[in-house]
Amino acid sequence: MRILVTGGAGFIGSHTVDALLEKGHQVKILDNLQQPVHLKGKPNYIPEDVEFIFGDVRDKKALEYALQNVDAVYHLAAYQDYLPDFSTYFHVNSVSTALLYEIIVEKNLPVKKVVVAASQAVLGEGLYECLEHGKMIPDIRLEKQLRQRDWEHYCPYCGATMHYLPTPEEKINPQNQYAMSKYSEEMIAINLGKRYDIPSVALRYSIVQGPRQSFYNAYSGAMRIFALSLYFNKPPIIFEDGKQIRDYINIRDVVNANLLVLEDERADYQVFNVGGGKPFSVIDFYEKMQEVIGKNMKPVNGDFYRYGDTRHIFSDISKLKGLGWEPKVPIEQSIQDYWDYLNSQTDIEDILEFAENRMKQLNVIRKAK
To answer: What is the pLDDT of residues 69-92, one digit of tens each?
Structure first.
């Protein structure tokens, strides 16, 4: 097949490109090398036998050109960060997806499959349970609560602390600008796909980990923060109390999911969670990283929080497993792969202080009382 990968120079995109080439597909990449993710320009891991198109997914002429003679599309280009430039999320994530379908319909292009990168973020705070009042989906925790170092979700009826549950695809409650833009992207893909007979799939990735993850993107999260901190022998900040649950998945498992839904018609017009299948607290993840790489450093813990973060989130992946997929790469391998990648770099700058100060200035990182 002839396949276009938007965002193909990025973390998930580039690994997907490699896997498609190994399968014998012809691949094009459309990427604008957005900074600060691609701070040093076009990555050297882009294969020479791939047509690389430098352009923005919001540019109709660039996207029209990229879509010529294409059988399938992986729409992985996205804007993700914690920054409060709200409109950018929708310009990049929502508008580009609408434009993709607009061109396919307008030009009557023979595209057989579109796979869009959605996000676990659309689940919001996820599914919780009160032992007395049952299951419910709480809204975002507000500033007044977090400033008091009060991190949990409570039942609105009895005030009891609620417990998180694995969240299935139908429990949707996007709370921040990125999540809302990604949910709109899902709806555009699935609904327009159905209407115009363009088989489409949305994959809600959990926290994806592995080599090629940008060192310069604050959204990259715990892996980047912890690894760079240990690399530069600086104590990392662990937000809140470190007990918040996260759902980590290796890039190889994500790529396997990407390939599966391309080839399996049962996935058409469906949304799937793509998670690691095993919950980890943030502090446990940090302990695991220290164990794997053989370094120890006491973190800064309990003084700061990142406004807009979820307390606990863990995806129910039973739907995708029903197609024969399952996560196979353990978290220890994800850590080792990223650490090896970090140590293979020759020009890494100490960007931790810059990134943290920038987020504090923008009032994303806040200090509890």
So the answer is: 999 999 999 998 767 889 999 999
